[in-house]
Amino acid sequence: MTVFLVTPVSxxxxxxxxxxxxxxxxxxxxxxxxxxxxxxxxxxPCDLLIALHARRSYRAIAHFRQRHPTAPLVVALTGTDLYGxxxxxxxxxxxxxLATRLVLLQPKGxxxxxxxxxxxxxxxxxxxxxxxxxxxxxxxxxxxxVLGHLRAVKDPFRTALAARLLPATSRIRVLHVxxxxxxxxxxxxxxxxxxxxxxHWLGELPRWQALRVLARSxxxxxxxxxxxxxxxxxEALAASVPIVASRIAGSVGLLGEDYPGFFPVGDTLALRDLxxxxxxxxxxxxxxxxxxxxxxxxxxxxxxxxxxxRLVQELLP
Length: 317
Known about the structure:
Elements: E1 2-6, H1 16-30, E2 34-38, E3 48-52, H2 58-67, E4 73-76, H3 79-88, H4 90-98, E5 101-104, E6 121-123, E7 142-147, H5 158-164, E8 172-177, H6 183-195, E9 199-203, H7 207-215, E10 219-222, H8 231-238, E11 243-246, H9 249-255, E12 262-263, H10 268-280, H11 282-295, H12 301-315
Parallel strand pairs: 1-2, 1-3, 3-4, 4-5, 5-6, 7-8, 7-10, 8-9, 10-11, 11-12
């Protein structure tokens, strides 16, 4: 079968959408399909179109549906779709109507969909793999990883601000991996690193290096104000690194309502207190670790591959 996979970012992008699109293309090829990965759809022949992002890929979605009124069309919904565009974008709303199936990255996203299209939705958890030879944890520092590009929706400096408030006895060191997506963000990261001895901005790293930084950390912080289902959570679960996260729907959908490692969005003091507890309370750290270990099978690559296999068979028996 021929699959055309549309993504709004470059094929080489290290942003979440680019990582996701390339992984899905690999999975579909492993299942025996011919896959074209592109940013636009210009009428190329295919048996199935998969569009990542309802609004930003709307032109491709509408073009495909106009040319192929009954052919299978899958629209994968991002956090921007679920928690932003669907409320005010007519294009994003129309994309839901045109789609044969909708892919969500976590089950709580169903709550954001109009009731009459929820039957189209399928949840496919994003998979990840840990480094084959995990590096040893640092002994002199308690490393906290922040994994994500520097843009406003990630609230990227929340962990650095919390680290400023730690007592002198704390061994916490913040390792931030990610590219600044604006000159302003880059300047702020350089300034923060200069004035905050606990904060280290490592910039953009090749994916394998970023995952090694994560694997050698004691905990990962995801401070985003909005996520559809963060790749970083899957990567931390695969690497057996406990997670501290802002309480947003996309993360609650992955980690569960009862996950004890949440803090209120933008609450620096609450994040500081949570980091201190993670560092100093072995029982609490063990609780976070055990919870994450129970979730790890959800992000196993075979689990994601089987989910795509079922979806394709559903559309093209």
